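Let's do one together. I've listed all components of the complex below, 765 residues spread over three lines.
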Amino acid sequence: MKVKQSLVSAHHNYLVNNRVIPGFVMGDPGSKGDFYFLADFVLPGETTPRCSGRLFDEQGELLVEINWNRLGENPGNCVYRPVRGGFQVVSGAGEVLVAVRTQQFTNGYLTRLQGRAYDRSGSLRMETDGDNVRVDEDELAPLAGPYLEPFSGAARPADAS
Amino acid sequence: MRRVQSSDACGRVWVFGDYRNYFKNRVTLQLIARAKDLAGKLDTGVTVLLLGERVHQWAMEYVAHGADTVVVVDLPALKDYRAETYSGIMSQLVELYRPEIILGGATRFGRELFPRLAKRLDTGLSSDCVDLEIDPSDRGLVQITPAFGGELLAEIVCPNRRPQMATVHPGTFKELPHDASAVGCILYPELEIIPDERVEKIRSRPERDRETRLEDAPLVIVGGRGMGSKDQFETLFELADLLGAEVGATLPAIQAGWAAPDRLIGQTGRIVKPKLLISIGTSGALQYTAGIRGAETIIAINRDPKASIFRMADLGIVGDGRTIVGLLLEELRKRF
Amino acid sequence: MNIVVCIKQVPESPKLKMDRDRMTVIREGADSVINPLDCVALVAGVELRNQLGGEITVLSMGPPQTAGALREALAYGADRAILLSDPVFAGADTLATSHVLAAAISRLDVFPDLVLCGTHTIDSDTAHVGPQVAEELDLPQVCAVNEIFPEEDGLVVKRVEDGVLETLRVRLPALLTVSKELCAPGSLSLGGLSRAFSFGEVTCWDHRDLGLEPGEVGFEGSATWVVKLSSPPPRSKGEIVQGTSAVLCETLIRKLESLGILDEESAE
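Okay, and this is what the predicted structure of the assembly comes out as:
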């Protein structure tokens, strides 16, 4: 029997591959120009997720950088659109690159990610699957606490909420 | 922050996670708390089994309340609780992880699922336990349950088969506080599931809301056979109004029609844990006292100085409950 | 519809004698009756049989005097009674009991369409045996049923499950356990009773008839053992007061005051 294993936080988790996970990294957030996506661990007291990433289009052209839920470099003229419980980043062509929505229930928070993002070589790295996102299991590094490794974007804000 | 190493990913003390009616039905959380004590003595962890559809949030709640690991099987076919399907899945998980102990709430569903699962696993089960211990000599689970009409407590063991299974009445143990900083392990086994469709739900609707809130009441007055009549029993409601209490009843009082059946206190009724419980005209049969053991203070009023209720009373008043309630009501009406 | 009803003979009085070596109840000599919920199952079975035809077989595991309960079941209207009695069946927990009942059901000439049991017994109250017989026979189960409606290809049943009223369709064969709300056992006519006692025939099967080994039944075949029986420990050394009602009421008020129950805010 195959068993998938991950961590779960009592306070906040992301829903990825139909599983909860307190935080995860894809790619290397320390790299200067490559694809990455970071869904950072959310500490008790914080109520919003912290997402960062460098996203490309099918041709491997940089579309946008996201730094802690805000747009950074934006050669693709992407648009930041607040939605209920979170935000979307929409490409110039009108396609949703990333949608982040947090739902509160009982005593905790669950963030659902959706979107469609490519890396520098034009390979598909994340894709919407129902109410969450599907990524390659082997590329997903789970986080059990806030991400403290080298990071090419802005410093982590003290409290994004 | 607590981190869980993958080597002890699945602890060997299991709790069946029943999340239905979560805010009122806390039995799963109560069992997690007790399972933690038991697991500590066995050098293992607590695992909650969570079956259903879209159950992620409950996994978080169980970790917040002390579970080390949650095993999740999340499928649309598991939306309705069915003993046949659930016992099939749980037996596969037992084969995979070999738990020592499986605990569940003695809810209606628990009492339907656990016997079936125990049979499938060819192991022992005890029902409606009032306490659980680990025997230090053989590390076996001692299951303490009222026996023989409630006269005695039986210690039951399951020496030669595993897992050891028990159901526990809601309210028997105390849940741990919510810890938002807890991090646990979550396992998603990919199971072959053949849903059992021989029983099909046509419709369901909630039973009308129960009016009483006995389980949460800080002050409970319980009347028994010694109240003598429905009219006399009614005076307890008046007393309860003046004191801000809830009224419960023993089986004889309910059988006599003096109180609604949902006020039954005891092993087959509600288990209460008030700060103060006043027990009036009750003899103290174990069936009843199993439901009041958690009271901080017990005052008992009974005419019979040998009544067994006095064995557990902090203050025992030997006298006629009807007269004393009458006098107390007079005095309280003067005060308030 | 062919129906099996499982019944248990239980002591009428809650005061029991114990076999302290085996930690089991001594049933001999006690006044015994059919477990009340099993009577409900029996009456429900008779109603279904009268409506739909077929036969009712009543099964009970117990010592030889359990034949009395089975004759009573014949008086209720059962067609056939089988006593499962053997010294090696003694001391069984619910796992071993359900094994014997399931073995007997699968040995019947015709496998039943429906197995009925009471939800629980008044003497042990485990409510295990119904679901465990269902599991061993691979039957679907519905517990604590309070209404049964026959349909062309099965039954529609109602029950209360943890605060939800459920209506379920059950394919046959199936096992149901019944709650006391299903129906009130009708009073037996004396004619029926005396007929049962004079003509009622009770077949007896032992472990060989069932094809079972002694090691898989009774005390030997049980998973759980009772290792200790004790009176519940006294909770605390409380204070016991006697006197006139006025004095006692005064004592009570002082106690309530000391606990802060009569403070003004608690009177809200």
